[in-house]
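Help! Submission page says 'invalid entity' but I think these are all valid:
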Amino acid sequence: MSTLSRRAVLQAGGALVVAIALPRLVPVVDAAAPAMPALPDPSQLDAWLAVLPDGSVQAFFGKMDMGHGIEIAIAQIVAEELDVDIERVSIVMGDTARTPNQGGASGSTGISNGAKPLRNAAAEARRLLVEAASREWDVPVARLAVAQGMVSVIGEPARSLSYAALVGGRKFNAPVEWNKSVGNAMDVKVKAQPKARGAYKLVGQSLPRRDVSGKVFGTRDFVTDLRVPGMLHARMIRPPKAGQVVGHVDSAALTTKYPQVQVVQDKDFLAVVAPREWLAVKAARELKVEWRPDTAQKPWPGHDGLHAWIRKAPVLKRDDALRKGDVEAAFAQAARVVDAEYEWPLQSHACMGPACAVADVRGDRATVWTGSQKPHSVRDGVAKLLGMPIEAVHTIWVMGPGSYGRNDAGDAAMDAVWLSKRLGKPVRVQGMRHDGTAWDPKGPACVHRSRAALDAQGKVIAWDFTSRGLSRVGVSFNEADPRDTLAGQSLGMPLPTDIGFGAPSESYGFANKRQAWEVVPPLQERYSPLRTSHLRDPLGPEVHFGSEQFIDELALATGQDPVAFRLANLTAPRDIAVVKAAADRCNWTPRVKPVIRSKKQDAVLTGRGMAYATRAGTVVAVVIDVEVTPATGRVWARRVTVAHDCGLVVNPRGLVQTIEGNVIHGLSRTLFEEVQFDADTVRSVDWASYPILEMQDAPEAVDVVLLDSAQSDPSGAGEPTIRCVPAALANAFYDATGVRLRRAPFTPARVKKALQSRSRKA
Amino acid sequence: MATVHFTLDGKAVTAEADEDQPLLYLLRDELGLNNPHFGCGLAQCGACTVHLDGEPLRSCVAPASIVEGKTVTTIRGLGTPEHPHPVQQAWADEQVPQCGYCVNGWIMTAAALLRKNPKASDAELRAGLAGLKCRCGTHLSIMRAIKRAQARLA
């Protein structure tokens, strides 16, 4: 196994004398390192990229590719601006010693925000290299050209200098104008002018990813595969029932049976540690713990009683996210009011594997390997947990078993750090399946109340949409504060107090409009398996499940085709273009009421529905062609059409596959996913009790139309599509059956029940 | 502890395993393999899939003793970049993986499925892949890759 000293890794951020650190190269803490290392300084060009002695280029990206393929997209952007071969550009991602804090994977901003400073830095590096050559030859810059990392005098091919010769292995020592933002908004201004889009050769090409071979041939390591010498394996022990605290722990019986096993307990933080993983798994199962009830904990309402509980719960905070005109006055004048309520369940990240982290805390330093999509936040949280300066904590992101938001990864990191501190050895923590499904932070459950006022002609004169639900930040969307992690909460730290939710994002031009949200208290204050946080496109699928179904309900209530209704009421030209593009692509035919094509219970009913939404500059419309089998309750989104405008497209193939993943995840959440729980126990603990979409229910085809708004800056694609999927499916279901499904998920049992009640009415 | 002798990715190995130790932990803990992966420990997802004498096996629940005298193939033994299995090649051509953690289950299952039924229909493929999970939602790429592999095998 290769090793890399900590100092070498840190120096690599500046002087660049070592090879790229692949995940398998495990740095070992150099305990003799005297001074605290300096963090990358975003106001220095050297923090963003470096030219190695051989002329290859490293770019330092403070976000990561969590699977959508943005690593190659970033390389395309950097190579484009620098005029070097794409093969010569490598991207260092999510290492806190080597990359500026760009906020990690966050809000689908990898390209839209994350690439900006790198694009500027690459353009600036090119400018400085050309200037250096100009001085060397005393030839004006205007007479110089760059190709494939070589600067040459135009018309004199003999006079050329490579980037390697000009700066290879040395620092630029050049300032850039940092906007002083940390996180997603971090950017730099430079003297150089980045290329005009018409000049792009690499940006816009479907270049292949670099991580595929390692994944397909099993040679790439995940965070779960790291092995540090002397590393111990740990499993966390969580309370089985709501609000329970640790009573007597029979450590003696366990350690007598397994002398190599240690039990670590600090208040409610409880873990079993062993030198071999299997022993840790086995010992964790066998540890006998007496759990004591927390008398202050009220019984949970259960998943079936959750929405009634949300309706009755006190409101901690209300926010009128959008107010336009006089909604109440319009309702007072209404000739007709249409209203409806929609319910969305608690959902789990349920990542492909439970989270894993390795931590090595020694003396005044800590090293953490994590799959968290926010390694800089992990660093900050670990520093707070250990009382160290952030410079003393080195966090290295390594691809984990999937991540679409604030999943269990940050908890695993904090648990590993605490155990390593307590035991003085490197510790690897991995969850069991129930840790990933029952104990991850949940996507919030909510109820949406929608009403619209119509005038005598059926025109919408007011729109009023209020969501009420659990906070999107019951624990924060990152791990920068240990109070937001299971470790901090089990150790008794004060609880976080953030409250947040979300509102629909669209451009309907109703004269009077209100979009509001209300957040209710958590189901359990501390150390809760039902704590809520960010799950892919936080509140996007949840909110638009209501708002975009209600648009269809309004259209049909007034005898209008849902697509025509959207086109008539949307105001933003790009939004109109996207809705039109989706309708054109699937040959949408106008419909003003469902046509039930068969009344036989064993028949398959077909229908189609649309939903549209915007998200941070991206516009998406989704049409779903559905098949419903009343006898079984099966709902199959057989064909899906997506029109997508995210501005400039960097890598079309990667973008299409990202959109396809959105569709599948969205269908899974709409059809199958609901965290089940009763008065004191989470019942969704594995894939049997938390089913997700499998191959049988995948669409036959997802047809993606990319609207090429090359004039617009690139905006995000990791999340916008998913917010349209639930309502498009619900609208298609209505078109097929004449029945509204206003509560997700559309499980077979729920579908059968809904269709039977329609049959009885018929 | 019991001693097991078996062939692992073409090499004869001997290892010690607890009576109740699943094969996955033998491969990872004792033999130092980084594939397959732990996904659920319940045979519900496929991330731990290996071939036992050519048949897909969920190594997270199969006792290690099951491999005595048999041949175990992991995704690393199925093929290499120089000599890829047609399914692996198709996976690379179609750029299937996103996070990639689930990939053992799909590739090892698809390889066995196509060996028995190279012309499997769409419905047979969907049925044959039941139970496998992919949380990134790469299902469409997976179907494209399998059809590409079928074309190559035809």
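Support: the input was valid. A stray whitespace character was the problem, and the output above is from the cleaned input. Chain A touches chain B through 62 residues (CB under 8 Å).
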